Amino acid sequence: MSREVRYRRSSAEGTAQPPSDMVQYVSPHPGLEGPGATFASVATALGAHGDIGKKVLSTLGVSELVAGEWYPLQLLLDVLKGVAQATGDHTLLGIGKAIVDHAVWPAMPPTMVDALQLIDVAYHMNHRLDGEVMFDPATGVMREGIGHYRCHPEKHQIIMVCDTPYPSELDRGILLGTARRAASRGVRPRVDVVLDESRPSRKRGADSCTYRVTW
């Protein structure tokens, strides 16, 4: 039996809500911010083509993103959109995998299910709303407003439902990067994360994407 990741949502937000209307590349709130370390993930994924990221920043009127600083989420989404338009959606997969290495994480738990459950906590730890980090490890309070990574373990796979403003392929990369990191801690190393095309998808205008994680 896997350990349940425990947290509680801010009392101001009430109980858990169903997925909100999330659109790819559109911040759901002007007060949302993300970390400058995100751009380090972009640069890692672009490799020798890193100048593309710099050109995208330039078109947005930004010289650079500094790790440790916070930036409007919409700016970060615009950077990702510009990179995807210049290089293709496949780059987003690499960025997502790299984010796992650059983001702030709690200690990685020992099982695949625990690791994938923890993504939602890490996601909120790496975003701020109106200047306040969206998950407080000391109190376990999670603020609403940016969507979730919802984990549903099944017998031979794990179903992940993601309703974030990030592009679908980037979310798939985050899931794959996290699952592979968990796999390196004792699970069989072959991991696959596939978008379930039979379910609604943000690529087709839906509010969420569903992924199947197998190993």
Automatic annotation (TrEMBL):
Residues 1-22 are annotated as: Disordered. Residues 1-11 have a biased composition (Basic and acidic residues). This is 4-vinyl reductase 4VR domain-containing protein.
